[in-house]
Amino acid sequence: MAAKSSLKNMLLCLSLVCLCCSALLAGTYALTLEPIKAAAQAKTNAAIAEVLPPFEGNPSLSEVQFSGASYSYYRAEGAGYAIISNTTGFGGTLSIMVGITEDGTVHNTKVLSHSETPGLGAKCETDTRFIQQFSGLDPAATRLVVSKDGGDIDAITASTITSRAYTLAVANAVEAYKVITGGKDNE
Fold it and tell me: What global pTM score does this model have?
């Protein structure tokens, strides 16, 4: 015999369906929370290892604020600092990690996330000619601005806005390094 269709029965059925779905969603969240955190930490550790010279131990996470922005960074004893710098590119936020050694040299850079145009601005992740300009870079001897704007960095072909954003992110990380190490007063 079929249940009588009434507002009470419909609300009861809908409530049961919502309760079951909520329980499934909560269970899935609980099961996947730790693996997601572990994967994110592994990605971060891989990026730190890529932007800094080899080091022992685990880097410590800290944060510094200057010029109205906040910068997270990892300190690896004896190797330097892996600073996360965010700027706005053509397609949205461009987030990179910049490895700066103890002596202030940019060791390497790594794109963490971006929303740049595939095939153009997205080359900031793959264009080795562009990326290699930042490896071993001495910020004191280099003007961290694209050459089109009078600087020393050659832009990615057809991606000047992304190149400017990437270069600005590196320059901001260098300034954060100066604040972290006391090379510049906190603004």
Answer: 0.81
